[in-house]
Amino acid sequence: MVSHTAYESISVDVEDSIATIEFHRPEVYNALNDAVMLDLSRAFDEIQLDREIDAVVITGEGEDAFSAGADITEYAGPAEEHAHQEDRQELFYEMYQKPLDCHAPVIAKVNGYCVGGGLIFAMFCDMRVAVEDAKFGVPTANIGQIPTGGSNKRAIELVGEAKAKEIVFTAGFIDAEEAERIGLINHAVPREELDSTVDGIIDGIQNTGRNAVKNSKRALNQAAQAPDAESAREFEEALWWEQFASDERRELVDEFNEGE
C-alpha cells in the first residue's frame, strides 16, 4: 500500500479504496500556489501506483471555495522578474493533465468558488458535482492574462466554443445552475446533498466491474482526443478485447446469467 502522508498544503486519505484529496488553504480560498501544485503532483503519482484505488474525490477545506485559482501574488511585477514563470506554467500544465490521466475516475466535489486555475483543474477531472451556490469563472482577462494549461481546448470540449468564449471574454461568473445546463458540471445540488450525491456516484462505480470502469475511462479519453473516428475505434477495440479476456468479465457475466 502506498503511503499518502507528509503533504504541506493538501491532505490525502484513502478509505475503502477511495482517495480523498483536500486543499488546505481556506484563508486564501484554497488558491493554487507552487506548494499546492507540487503536493498534487506527488499525490497523483502515488495514486497512480495504487491500483486498488477505485475513485478519487477532490475538494477544498471550508465552505467558501473549492479553489479560487492561481495565487496571484506569484504573478506580480514585470515579466523580466519572472524567469521561472515558463517552468511554472509547464508544471501547471502537467498537473492539470493528471486527473484526466489517472487510472481511476476523478470527481471534483465543488463546495464553493471554483475560479481560474481552480476551475481549470476541475475541468480536467472526469466529473464535477457542485453545491447550488457555487460560482464558476475564468477571470484571467481581469488581470491581463489568458487561460493556459491546455484549458482552452478542454473548455471547448466541455461547453462548446461560443460558451467558452463568453466565459473567458467577459471574465464573469456563472452559477451552478447555468454550469449544469451548459455541461460544465454534472450536478448542482443543495449543500446538504453534496456528500450523498458524490457517495452515490462512487457506489455506482464500485458496484460495477472496477477494471471495466478504468478501461472505459481510457477509451472515452482516447475518443475525445483521437484525431479521427477510426483511430478512436481501433483503440477502443483493443481495450474491448483486453477487458473481454479478463477474469472480471468472465465472473460478472457468470453472475449475471446465474441471476436470470
List the keywords.
260 residues; alpha/beta; six-stranded mixed β-sheet; four-stranded mixed β-sheet; 10 helices; globular
Gist?
Helices cover 47% and strands 16% of the residues. It is built from ten helices and ten strands.
Secondary-structure element series:
EEHEEHEEHEEHHEHEHHHH
Question: What is the beta-strand fraction?
Answer: 15-25%
Distance between the termini: 38 Å
Strand order of the largest sheet: 1-2-3-5-7-10
- Structural class computed from helices and strand pairing: alpha/beta
Mean pLDDT: 91
**Total DSSP helices:** 10
Largest sheet: 6 strands, mixed
Question: Which term fits the overall shape?
Answer: globular
Q: Could you name the ranges where pLDDT drops below 50 across 5 or more consecutive residues?
A: none
Radius of gyration: 19 Å
Report what the structure shows.
This protein is α/β, with parallel strands linked by helices and 260 residues long. The chain contains ten helices and ten strands. The strands form two sheets. The protein has a six-stranded mixed sheet, sandwiched between helices. A four-stranded mixed sheet has the order 4-6-8-9. Helix 1 links the parallel strand 2 and strand 3. The longest helix is centred in the middle third of the chain and has 17 residues. The two termini are 38 Å apart. The mean pLDDT is 91.
How does the SSE layout of this entry go?
Elements: E1 10-15, E2 18-23, H1 34-49, E3 55-60, E4 65-67, H2 85-101, E5 106-110, E6 113-115, H3 117-123, E7 127-131, E8 135-137, H4 151-159, H5 161-170, E9 174-175, H6 176-181, E10 187-189, H7 194-206, H8 210-225, H9 229-244, H10 247-258
Parallel strand pairs: 2-3, 3-5, 4-6, 5-7, 6-8, 7-10
Antiparallel strand pairs: 1-2, 8-9
